[in-house]
Design a protein that fits this description.
It contains 15 helices and 14 strands. By secondary structure, the protein is an alpha/beta fold. It has an eight-stranded mixed beta sheet, with helices on both faces. Strand 10 and strand 11 form a beta hairpin. The protein is globular. The model has no long low-confidence stretch (mean pLDDT about 95).
Length: about 400
């Protein structure tokens, strides 16, 4: 069974082709960059032959990027597109829908109903899925929703303190995201430690970040809510903030609601705190090291926010067995790991500074004998989506 797993960004398309009957082998991978811009790039790799390349290309919409991807797959990877068992997507959010779903029009409409709380994610996914449907009309399209892993949250963790009937009527609650990555990180840690009865804090840190308390393999609390604008700060989104800041900016400062929304969605986080320098933490770190006070404040604030969630979730679970870092920043951000974990010996967390500096994926960077282990993991969201899509296809055929 050959499954094509696609990750759709607002200006990008990434893909991996898996052969699920050959040890989940990756047959091909690649992607398109700068979709919607005048000039972009397409890159590809045929894992069977080792052939790979990168070329300039223009992709006015995702449709052209999808067509180029299909051409690459037919060039020595697939004999025909009909060999695809499905196209799977790591979709984000839908009102009243979660889990693993065939992406019917009803499901797409449920996604559109939550465009307001996932404005950077849902619209490009919906548009791209419809373009896939036109180009591959006979191929099943399957979505694994990022909220699925968090369906085990108890009411005390997911309810907001708003009028109960309003919350029920409008489906306003904490949902959580990055489920595929968090599921991979928690499963990896359980296998590494040879136990299922674990209390873990999994940190998917990147341009968008999730921190999740996982007990016995189940999500019991997480920092993201009905949308992805809360929790620790993100590359250009706000993170946790007193909502009355919004009312103050509108009512006392004369700003319009769209202006405030644009600031909180696209001009905040690392980008905002760095004085507009960059939303990329690597740039912020470099500037902080060179003496930029705004960037130093942004970096210290980010680490401090992570530290507070670590303490809160350890307390909520009544203990802690391991902290697991994944995502681009979690995997590569040694200064973030050090800053977030510093001073947490009271929780049994003891970071080995030398191991942290040289950490590779799969490493335990805790001091030997520490009560709490610390792992750095190369997360793999695509294989989680592929496994879920395969399970749905097989269940549908029974």
């Amino acid at each position: 069974m050959k499954l094509l797993i696609c990750n759709v960004g607002s200006t990008s398309l990434k893909y991996q082709l898996f052969d699920m009957d050959a040890g989940e082998a990756v047959l091909a991978s690649g992607g398109a960059e700068r979709v919607g811009a005048g000039r972009g790039e397409f890159y590809w790799k045929n894992r069977r032959t080792g052939a790979e390349g990168r070329e300039p290309a223009a992709f006015p919409t995702h449709r052209e990027a999808i067509s180029r991807m299909l051409e690459a797959l037919l060039d020595g990877v697939l004999e025909r597109l009909e060999d695809l068992g499905c196209v799977g997507f790591k979709v984000v959010h839908a009102k009243g829908v979660s889990g693993v779903q065939y992406l019917t029009e009803d499901v797409l409409e449920a996604m559109a109903a939550f465009n307001t709380v996932a404005p950077a994610h849902n619209p490009p996914y919906i548009a791209a899925i419809r373009q896939f449907r036109e180009l591959l009309p006979d191929t099943p399209l399957i979505g694994a929703f990022e909220t699925a892993f968090h369906q085990t949250l108890p009411p005390k963790a997911y309810l907001y303190p708003i009028p109960a009937e309003l919350g029920r009527k409008e489906a306003i609650r904490r949902y959580g995201f990055h489920g595929a990555s968090l599921e991979y990180l928690s499963t990896w840690a359980a296998e590494r430690m040879g136990r299922q009865d674990l209390k873990l804090i999994c940190c998917h840190l990147g341009g968008s970040s999730s921190i999740c308390a996982v007990e016995n393999g189940r999500s019991v609390d997480t920092n993201l809510g009905i949308g992805l604008q809360c929790g620790v700060m993100h590359n250009n989104r706000i993170g946790d903030m007193d909502p009355y800041v919004i009312f103050h900016l509108v009512e006392a400062c004369g700003m319009t609601l769209p202006e405030v929304k644009a600031i909180l969605q696209t001009k905040s986080g690392f980008l905002g705190m760095s004085g507009g320098l960059s939303g990329d933490l690597r740039d912020v770190e470099a500037a902080a090291a060179a003496g930029n006070e705004d960037c130093r404040n942004a970096l210290e604030s980010y680490c401090y926010q992570i530290k507070k969630y670590l303490g809160a979730y350890a307390a909520a679970m009544g203990g802690l067995d391991a902290v697991v870092f994944g995502g681009g920043i979690g995997r590569n951000g040694k200064s973030v790991r050090a800053g977030a974990l510093r001073g947490l010996a009271c929780l049994g967390i003891h970071l080995d500074e030398a191991k942290n500096e040289a950490a590779a994926g799969g490493d335990d960077i805790s001091v030997p004998g520490s009560p709490v282990r610390i792992f750095v993991v190369d997360t793999n969201e695509e294989i989680v989506v592929a496994r879920k899509a395969k399970a749905l296809l097989e269940a549908s055929r029974r």
